[in-house]
Design a protein that fits this description.
Layout: H1 21-31, E1 43-46, H2 53-67, E2 72-77, H3 84-95, H4 108-118, E3 123-128, H5 137-143, E4 148-154, H6 157-162, H7 166-174, E5 176-179, H8 185-199, H9 207-216, H10 221-238, H11 245-249, H12 251-265, H13 269-281, E6 283-284, H14 286-296, H15 303-315, E7 319-322, E8 329-332
Parallel strand pairs: 1-4, 1-5, 2-3, 3-4
Antiparallel strand pairs: 6-8, 7-8
Helix pairs in contact: 1-2, 3-4, 8-9, 8-10, 9-10, 10-12, 13-14, 13-15
The protein binds a DNA duplex (22 and 22 nucleotides) through helix 15.
Length: 335
Amino acid sequence: MITDARVLTAHFVPRDVEHRHEEIDRLSAALDPLLDGHPGENASLFGPTGAGKTCVARYTLRQLRERLPGLDAQYVNCWRDGSPFAVRRRLLDAVGDTTDVHRQSTAIDALRERFRAALDGPFVAVLDEVDQLSSTDLLYDLNATPEVTLVLIANREAELFADLDDRLDSRLRGGVTVHFDRYGVEECAAILRSRAERGLDPGAIDEEGLRTIADRSGGDARVAIDALRAAARAAERRGGDRITDADLADAVPTARSTIRERRLETLGEHQRAVYDAIRAAGEIEPGPLYEAYSDRVDDPRSRRMVRNYCAKLDQYGLIRAEGETRDRRYSVVEE
DNA sequence: CGTCCACTGGAAGCCGTGGCGC
DNA sequence: GCGCCACGGCTTCCAGTGGACG
Protein backbone atom coordinates (compact mmCIF):
# COMPACT_ATOMS: atom_id res chain seq x y z
CA MET A 1 0.00 0.00 0.00
CA ILE A 2 2.80 2.44 0.88
CA THR A 3 4.62 3.21 -2.35
CA ASP A 4 6.90 5.98 -1.10
CA ALA A 5 7.40 6.18 2.65
CA ARG A 6 9.58 9.27 2.31
CA VAL A 7 6.59 11.33 1.19
CA LEU A 8 4.75 10.30 4.34
CA THR A 9 7.14 12.08 6.64
CA ALA A 10 6.65 15.66 7.75
CA HIS A 11 10.15 16.56 6.81
CA PHE A 12 9.70 15.80 3.12
CA VAL A 13 9.43 19.00 1.08
CA PRO A 14 6.85 18.56 -1.70
CA ARG A 15 6.94 20.00 -5.22
CA ASP A 16 3.90 22.06 -4.38
CA VAL A 17 3.19 23.48 -0.98
CA GLU A 18 -0.51 23.59 -0.25
CA HIS A 19 -2.22 26.64 1.18
CA ARG A 20 0.87 28.61 1.91
CA HIS A 21 1.14 30.64 -1.26
CA GLU A 22 0.83 33.96 0.47
CA GLU A 23 3.53 33.07 2.98
CA ILE A 24 5.78 31.83 0.20
CA ASP A 25 5.21 35.03 -1.76
CA ARG A 26 6.16 37.18 1.18
CA LEU A 27 9.29 35.24 1.91
CA SER A 28 10.21 35.18 -1.79
CA ALA A 29 9.76 38.94 -1.98
CA ALA A 30 12.23 39.36 0.87
CA LEU A 31 14.76 37.21 -0.94
CA ASP A 32 14.13 38.60 -4.42
CA PRO A 33 16.95 41.17 -4.38
CA LEU A 34 19.32 38.20 -4.35
CA LEU A 35 18.37 37.56 -7.97
CA ASP A 36 20.08 40.84 -8.83
CA GLY A 37 23.09 40.07 -6.71
CA HIS A 38 22.02 42.19 -3.75
CA PRO A 39 21.50 40.96 -0.20
CA GLY A 40 17.91 40.11 0.62
CA GLU A 41 15.85 41.49 3.43
CA ASN A 42 16.00 39.60 6.71
CA ALA A 43 12.88 37.55 7.33
CA SER A 44 11.29 35.97 10.39
CA LEU A 45 8.73 33.20 10.30
CA PHE A 46 6.54 32.67 13.36
CA GLY A 47 3.81 30.20 14.12
CA PRO A 48 2.88 27.03 15.99
CA THR A 49 4.42 23.64 15.26
CA GLY A 50 3.10 21.87 12.22
CA ALA A 51 1.97 25.10 10.56
CA GLY A 52 4.38 24.79 7.66
CA LYS A 53 7.14 27.24 8.59
CA THR A 54 10.05 24.92 7.94
CA CYS A 55 8.42 23.55 4.83
CA VAL A 56 7.86 27.03 3.39
CA ALA A 57 11.41 28.08 4.17
CA ARG A 58 12.95 25.03 2.57
CA TYR A 59 10.62 25.18 -0.40
CA THR A 60 11.29 28.87 -1.03
CA LEU A 61 15.01 28.37 -0.70
CA ARG A 62 14.89 25.49 -3.15
CA GLN A 63 12.95 27.59 -5.66
CA LEU A 64 15.45 30.40 -5.30
CA ARG A 65 18.38 28.12 -5.87
CA GLU A 66 16.80 26.73 -8.98
CA ARG A 67 16.75 30.24 -10.39
CA LEU A 68 20.13 31.07 -8.95
CA PRO A 69 22.23 27.93 -8.91
CA GLY A 70 25.33 29.64 -7.59
CA LEU A 71 23.62 31.02 -4.50
CA ASP A 72 25.24 30.00 -1.25
CA ALA A 73 22.77 29.10 1.46
CA GLN A 74 22.53 26.90 4.48
CA TYR A 75 19.70 25.53 6.56
CA VAL A 76 20.54 24.96 10.22
CA ASN A 77 18.28 23.45 12.84
CA CYS A 78 19.32 25.15 16.06
CA TRP A 79 17.70 22.50 18.16
CA ARG A 80 20.14 19.93 16.85
CA ASP A 81 23.05 22.31 16.35
CA GLY A 82 22.43 24.74 19.15
CA SER A 83 25.87 25.94 20.14
CA PRO A 84 27.44 28.89 18.35
CA PHE A 85 30.26 26.60 17.35
CA ALA A 86 27.95 24.06 15.74
CA VAL A 87 26.03 26.71 13.82
CA ARG A 88 29.18 28.37 12.55
CA ARG A 89 30.57 25.09 11.41
CA ARG A 90 27.38 24.31 9.52
CA LEU A 91 27.47 27.72 7.86
CA LEU A 92 31.08 27.29 6.89
CA ASP A 93 30.14 23.91 5.47
CA ALA A 94 28.15 25.65 2.78
CA VAL A 95 30.94 27.86 1.49
CA GLY A 96 34.19 26.28 2.49
CA ASP A 97 36.06 23.23 3.42
CA THR A 98 35.44 21.97 6.93
CA THR A 99 37.28 18.70 6.71
CA ASP A 100 40.01 20.15 8.89
CA VAL A 101 37.57 21.57 11.42
CA HIS A 102 37.64 19.10 14.20
CA ARG A 103 35.29 18.97 17.03
CA GLN A 104 36.66 21.42 19.45
CA SER A 105 40.18 22.37 18.74
CA THR A 106 39.43 25.12 16.26
CA ALA A 107 38.90 28.51 17.80
CA ILE A 108 35.45 29.87 17.22
CA ASP A 109 36.85 33.17 15.94
CA ALA A 110 38.77 31.26 13.34
CA LEU A 111 35.54 29.74 12.07
CA ARG A 112 34.00 33.17 11.78
CA GLU A 113 36.98 34.55 9.92
CA ARG A 114 37.06 31.62 7.55
CA PHE A 115 33.38 31.96 6.89
CA ARG A 116 33.76 35.65 6.09
CA ALA A 117 36.78 35.03 3.92
CA ALA A 118 34.99 32.32 1.97
CA LEU A 119 31.98 34.50 1.20
CA ASP A 120 32.09 35.76 -2.33
CA GLY A 121 28.52 36.90 -2.76
CA PRO A 122 25.17 36.85 -1.02
CA PHE A 123 24.53 34.10 1.50
CA VAL A 124 21.22 32.97 2.94
CA ALA A 125 21.28 31.52 6.44
CA VAL A 126 18.07 29.80 7.51
CA LEU A 127 18.09 29.30 11.27
CA ASP A 128 15.25 27.04 12.31
CA GLU A 129 14.14 26.86 15.94
CA VAL A 130 16.34 29.87 16.48
CA ASP A 131 14.95 30.39 19.98
CA GLN A 132 16.95 27.30 20.93
CA LEU A 133 20.22 29.04 20.22
CA SER A 134 22.24 29.06 23.40
CA SER A 135 23.75 32.46 22.66
CA THR A 136 22.48 35.35 20.59
CA ASP A 137 25.96 36.72 19.84
CA LEU A 138 25.91 34.75 16.66
CA LEU A 139 22.83 36.59 15.45
CA TYR A 140 24.49 39.95 15.99
CA ASP A 141 27.50 38.81 14.10
CA LEU A 142 25.59 37.40 11.14
CA ASN A 143 23.40 40.45 11.11
CA ALA A 144 26.49 42.62 10.86
CA THR A 145 27.83 40.65 7.92
CA PRO A 146 26.56 42.48 4.83
CA GLU A 147 26.47 39.45 2.55
CA VAL A 148 24.29 37.43 4.89
CA THR A 149 20.51 37.38 4.64
CA LEU A 150 18.88 35.84 7.69
CA VAL A 151 15.73 33.76 7.70
CA LEU A 152 14.78 33.03 11.31
CA ILE A 153 12.13 30.52 12.31
CA ALA A 154 10.59 30.33 15.77
CA ASN A 155 7.35 29.44 17.48
CA ARG A 156 6.65 32.66 19.24
CA GLU A 157 7.73 36.11 18.25
CA ALA A 158 7.72 37.62 21.71
CA GLU A 159 10.13 35.04 23.08
CA LEU A 160 12.61 35.46 20.29
CA PHE A 161 12.73 39.24 20.48
CA ALA A 162 12.77 39.32 24.27
CA ASP A 163 16.46 38.42 24.36
CA LEU A 164 17.65 40.72 21.63
CA ASP A 165 18.89 44.22 22.17
CA ASP A 166 17.42 47.16 20.31
CA ARG A 167 19.77 47.32 17.38
CA LEU A 168 19.27 43.77 16.19
CA ASP A 169 15.69 43.80 17.27
CA SER A 170 14.86 46.77 15.06
CA ARG A 171 16.70 45.45 12.05
CA LEU A 172 14.89 42.14 12.27
CA ARG A 173 11.55 43.72 12.92
CA GLY A 174 12.25 46.03 10.01
CA GLY A 175 12.58 43.00 7.79
CA VAL A 176 9.76 40.81 6.65
CA THR A 177 7.74 39.03 9.33
CA VAL A 178 5.46 36.21 8.27
CA HIS A 179 2.95 34.77 10.72
CA PHE A 180 1.66 31.24 10.22
CA ASP A 181 -1.68 30.12 11.60
CA ARG A 182 -2.68 26.56 12.24
CA TYR A 183 -4.09 24.84 9.20
CA GLY A 184 -7.84 24.47 8.98
CA VAL A 185 -9.39 21.07 8.44
CA GLU A 186 -9.79 21.64 4.69
CA GLU A 187 -6.22 22.82 4.32
CA CYS A 188 -4.84 19.97 6.33
CA ALA A 189 -6.91 17.49 4.30
CA ALA A 190 -5.49 18.96 1.08
CA ILE A 191 -1.96 18.41 2.35
CA LEU A 192 -2.79 14.82 3.22
CA ARG A 193 -4.43 14.32 -0.17
CA SER A 194 -1.32 15.29 -2.07
CA ARG A 195 0.85 13.15 0.20
CA ALA A 196 -1.49 10.19 -0.27
CA GLU A 197 -1.40 10.64 -4.03
CA ARG A 198 2.36 10.45 -4.05
CA GLY A 199 2.99 7.98 -1.26
CA LEU A 200 0.11 5.51 -1.30
CA ASP A 201 -1.57 3.26 -3.83
CA PRO A 202 -4.47 4.94 -5.64
CA GLY A 203 -7.69 4.61 -3.67
CA ALA A 204 -5.87 3.60 -0.50
CA ILE A 205 -7.73 6.24 1.47
CA ASP A 206 -10.96 8.06 0.72
CA GLU A 207 -11.84 11.69 1.12
CA GLU A 208 -13.63 11.08 4.39
CA GLY A 209 -10.61 9.33 5.84
CA LEU A 210 -8.39 12.28 5.00
CA ARG A 211 -10.81 14.67 6.65
CA THR A 212 -11.05 12.51 9.73
CA ILE A 213 -7.29 12.63 10.21
CA ALA A 214 -7.18 16.34 9.43
CA ASP A 215 -9.91 17.06 11.93
CA ARG A 216 -8.35 15.05 14.72
CA SER A 217 -4.88 16.53 14.18
CA GLY A 218 -5.97 19.95 15.29
CA GLY A 219 -4.29 21.80 12.46
CA ASP A 220 -0.85 20.32 13.08
CA ALA A 221 0.33 19.04 9.72
CA ARG A 222 3.19 17.11 11.23
CA VAL A 223 0.84 15.09 13.40
CA ALA A 224 -1.54 14.64 10.47
CA ILE A 225 1.16 13.30 8.15
CA ASP A 226 2.48 10.95 10.82
CA ALA A 227 -1.08 9.80 11.44
CA LEU A 228 -1.61 9.08 7.75
CA ARG A 229 1.48 6.92 7.80
CA ALA A 230 0.34 5.17 10.98
CA ALA A 231 -3.05 4.40 9.42
CA ALA A 232 -1.43 3.03 6.28
CA ARG A 233 0.85 0.84 8.37
CA ALA A 234 -2.14 -0.44 10.35
CA ALA A 235 -3.91 -1.34 7.11
CA GLU A 236 -0.81 -3.08 5.82
CA ARG A 237 -0.44 -5.11 8.98
CA ARG A 238 -4.02 -6.22 8.57
CA GLY A 239 -3.29 -7.24 5.01
CA GLY A 240 -5.87 -4.79 3.69
CA ASP A 241 -5.48 -2.76 0.51
CA ARG A 242 -7.26 0.33 1.74
CA ILE A 243 -7.48 2.30 4.97
CA THR A 244 -10.68 1.69 6.93
CA ASP A 245 -12.26 3.40 9.92
CA ALA A 246 -10.65 0.81 12.16
CA ASP A 247 -7.20 1.76 10.83
CA LEU A 248 -8.00 5.41 11.46
CA ALA A 249 -9.25 4.91 14.99
CA ASP A 250 -5.86 5.09 16.68
CA ALA A 251 -3.89 6.87 13.98
CA VAL A 252 -3.71 10.31 15.55
CA PRO A 253 -3.04 9.13 19.11
CA THR A 254 -0.42 6.78 17.71
CA ALA A 255 1.21 9.62 15.82
CA ARG A 256 1.22 11.84 18.88
CA SER A 257 2.61 9.18 21.13
CA THR A 258 5.27 8.29 18.58
CA ILE A 259 6.34 11.91 18.54
CA ARG A 260 6.34 11.97 22.33
CA GLU A 261 8.15 8.67 22.71
CA ARG A 262 10.83 9.89 20.37
CA ARG A 263 11.31 12.92 22.57
CA LEU A 264 11.28 10.95 25.80
CA GLU A 265 14.03 8.78 24.44
CA THR A 266 16.31 11.76 24.07
CA LEU A 267 16.07 12.55 27.79
CA GLY A 268 18.87 11.69 30.16
CA GLU A 269 18.43 9.76 33.40
CA HIS A 270 17.80 12.83 35.54
CA GLN A 271 15.50 14.56 33.10
CA ARG A 272 13.54 11.36 32.82
CA ALA A 273 13.31 11.07 36.62
CA VAL A 274 11.90 14.59 36.79
CA TYR A 275 9.38 13.75 34.10
CA ASP A 276 8.36 10.53 35.85
CA ALA A 277 8.00 12.34 39.16
CA ILE A 278 5.68 14.90 37.60
CA ARG A 279 3.73 12.21 35.80
CA ALA A 280 3.30 10.19 39.00
CA ALA A 281 2.06 13.23 40.90
CA GLY A 282 -0.28 14.51 38.23
CA GLU A 283 0.30 18.07 39.32
CA ILE A 284 3.12 19.11 41.60
CA GLU A 285 4.79 22.21 43.03
CA PRO A 286 8.52 22.82 42.73
CA GLY A 287 9.38 21.96 46.34
CA PRO A 288 7.68 18.57 46.47
CA LEU A 289 8.89 17.91 42.93
CA TYR A 290 12.48 18.24 44.02
CA GLU A 291 11.85 15.84 46.91
CA ALA A 292 10.15 13.33 44.64
CA TYR A 293 12.89 13.59 42.07
CA SER A 294 15.57 13.13 44.73
CA ASP A 295 13.91 9.90 45.85
CA ARG A 296 14.10 8.53 42.34
CA VAL A 297 17.81 8.92 41.71
CA ASP A 298 20.96 8.01 43.58
CA ASP A 299 22.82 11.23 43.18
CA PRO A 300 20.37 14.10 42.77
CA ARG A 301 21.39 17.24 40.93
CA SER A 302 20.89 20.71 42.38
CA ARG A 303 17.57 22.51 42.44
CA ARG A 304 18.85 24.89 39.83
CA MET A 305 19.52 22.00 37.49
CA VAL A 306 16.05 20.60 38.04
CA ARG A 307 14.70 23.98 36.98
CA ASN A 308 16.70 23.69 33.80
CA TYR A 309 15.30 20.23 33.21
CA CYS A 310 11.79 21.53 33.70
CA ALA A 311 12.41 24.34 31.24
CA LYS A 312 13.63 21.84 28.71
CA LEU A 313 10.72 19.47 29.27
CA ASP A 314 8.41 22.43 28.84
CA GLN A 315 10.06 23.37 25.55
CA TYR A 316 9.73 19.81 24.38
CA GLY A 317 6.02 20.05 25.07
CA LEU A 318 6.23 17.14 27.52
CA ILE A 319 5.17 19.07 30.59
CA ARG A 320 3.32 22.27 31.26
CA ALA A 321 4.47 24.91 33.72
CA GLU A 322 1.71 27.10 35.06
CA GLY A 323 1.92 30.05 37.40
CA GLU A 324 4.78 32.46 37.85
CA THR A 325 6.51 32.50 41.20
CA ARG A 326 4.91 31.15 44.32
CA ASP A 327 2.11 29.35 42.60
CA ARG A 328 4.20 27.52 40.00
CA ARG A 329 2.87 24.04 39.22
CA TYR A 330 4.07 21.40 36.83
CA SER A 331 2.00 18.77 35.10
CA VAL A 332 2.58 16.38 32.22
CA VAL A 333 0.99 17.05 28.88
CA GLU A 334 -1.27 14.13 28.10
CA GLU A 335 -1.81 12.85 24.60
C1' DC B 1 2.16 48.39 55.75
C1' DG B 2 6.90 45.84 55.87
C1' DT B 3 9.10 41.44 56.14
C1' DC B 4 9.62 36.84 55.06
C1' DC B 5 9.62 33.21 52.01
C1' DA B 6 9.44 30.18 47.71
C1' DC B 7 10.50 30.24 43.38
C1' DT B 8 12.46 31.83 38.80
C1' DG B 9 16.04 32.42 35.53
C1' DG B 10 20.52 34.92 34.39
C1' DA B 11 25.50 35.02 35.21
C1' DA B 12 29.84 33.34 36.51
C1' DG B 13 32.82 29.87 37.29
C1' DC B 14 34.34 24.81 37.86
C1' DC B 15 35.48 20.44 35.86
C1' DG B 16 35.93 16.27 33.00
C1' DT B 17 36.21 15.21 28.14
C1' DG B 18 38.32 14.74 23.70
C1' DG B 19 40.87 15.98 19.64
C1' DC B 20 45.05 18.72 18.19
C1' DG B 21 49.60 20.50 17.66
C1' DC B 22 53.97 20.34 19.37
C1' DG C 1 53.14 12.86 26.62
C1' DC C 2 51.61 17.48 27.53
C1' DG C 3 49.31 21.74 27.23
C1' DC C 4 45.58 23.96 24.68
C1' DC C 5 40.97 24.89 23.56
C1' DA C 6 36.09 24.70 23.49
C1' DC C 7 32.49 22.01 24.91
C1' DG C 8 28.46 20.50 27.89
C1' DG C 9 26.90 19.65 32.31
C1' DC C 10 27.07 21.15 36.57
C1' DT C 11 26.96 24.28 41.00
C1' DT C 12 26.76 28.57 43.35
C1' DC C 13 25.18 33.02 43.77
C1' DC C 14 21.96 36.51 43.15
C1' DA C 15 18.34 39.98 41.74
C1' DG C 16 13.63 40.00 40.91
C1' DT C 17 8.77 38.71 41.71
C1' DG C 18 4.70 38.13 44.19
C1' DG C 19 1.89 35.69 47.85
C1' DA C 20 1.53 35.07 52.98
C1' DC C 21 1.66 36.73 57.32
C1' DG C 22 2.35 39.55 61.55
